[in-house]
Amino acid sequence: MGEIRGREPVKLIVGLIFKEDSVLKETLLLLKKKFGEIDFECKTIPFKFTSYYEKEFGNGLSRKFISFSKLIKPQELSAIKIFTNKLEQKFAVNKARRINIDPGYLNLAKLVLASTKDFSHRIYLNKGVFAELTLLFKDKTFKFQDWTYPDYRTSGYIEIFKQIRQIYAGQVESSHN
Fold first, then answer.
1. What is the pTM of this model?
2. Domain 11-176 listed as CATH 1.10.287.3610
C-alpha cells in the first residue's frame, strides 16, 4: 500500500489571449494582486492557431504566458480557474469576452491546464473544473499528447515552458537546501 503524503508545491502559469493591450495590462495587475509577483512573462506572440476566438474577440489576437513566484498547491487549480473566469466576465462587453485567461500548473514532470469543459481525457476536480494533462516532460523536453492544443505543440511554446520549468526547478532545489 502506498503512503499518502502531501504534494510538493507547483508553479502557477497563466496563458492569456487578447486583442487590446489595455485589457491585458489591467488583467495582469489583478492577477498580481491575487497571486503575487510575476517571475516570467514571455514576449507577446501573434495568436493564429485557430479562428475559435475570432467571433467573440475579432481578429488580430495575441498570446502571452506568465508564471508567478509564489508556488501553489495542485488542489488550488479549480479555485484559480473560477477566479480567472470571473476576471474574464469583468472585462466582457455585452457578454463577449475581451480576454481569455487559461490557468494551469507546471512541475518537473508535466504541464496541467484547467478547463470547464469535460472530455474523455480530462479529470474532474470540483466545482465544474477539470484538469488536463497537456504536456509531459521526458528526454529533456516537453512531449505533447494526442489531445494537446496545436499551439501548445509548437517549439516556441515548448521553449517557454522549459524556461518556466527551469525557474521552478531552482525554486524546488532552494527549498530543499
1. 0.93
2. no
